[in-house]
Specification:
Helix content is 53%, strand content 20%. The protein is an alpha+beta fold. The radius of gyration is 42 Å and the shape is rod-shaped. The relative contact order is 0.11.
Amino acid sequence: MAKNQGKKADGSNSLLLYVGAFGALLLILVYVFVYQKLNTEAESINTSNVILAQRVSQLKEYYDHREEYLADTRLLEQMLDELLAEYPADAREEDAIMLAVEMQRESGAEFLTVNMQKGNVIHEVPAETVVAAGSEKYSQAIQFRNLDAAYVNEVSYTGLKRMIQTIYDSNNRIGIQNVVYSKGDAENPNLSGHIDLVFYSVQGTGREYVAPDMIPYIAGTDNIFGEVTASGEEADDSGEEAAENGEGAGESGETETGLSEQ
């Protein structure tokens, strides 16, 4: 009888031991797969809440000062418009040629060589930056470009000053890089040398290139800076050809227009 009771007690103890071990294992599994997961999610939510709280604080700051920011934005756009308006949409070879014609007309200079070279992009505002600014006027990349031009000529000192004044009065955006002239002699008192210019332009503003007015000047002459002259016989032949072709006197008058007034 006592032995049976002892065996039952041992069996009960073993069962309790197994139950206790199973309970401990269950607690570990609950901790690993439930509590720890929930704790990780709680930390993630807490971190997200901190970030959201910071964002809300920033948005509140923007909202409280929205009128000031809008005024600053309008002022910035106005300043940008004024800056970009000073630059033409493009600078091309005809602009450099027509400037030479104007300089000759104003200064009486004799141009020997005009060299032009299309430059590269000297500064660019990427399209991403332009779009991020949120402006309704600009959506493309804004590129500042240059065109180099060198003018070799002979001119008087007074004429050189007039040339520089003509450059500053030009509608183009022009920078003077170099002015190099040598003194003349008794036989030829004029200065001889060259003046190097840079034509600046900006692309991406939506404005179109405006070509210079070249109508008063005839193409195809042997001297692009000189006057177009015709002998008496050539003038008579031109008149006869104009009459045969039914052209008016106004059109024949245009053919006698010089490239410059000297």
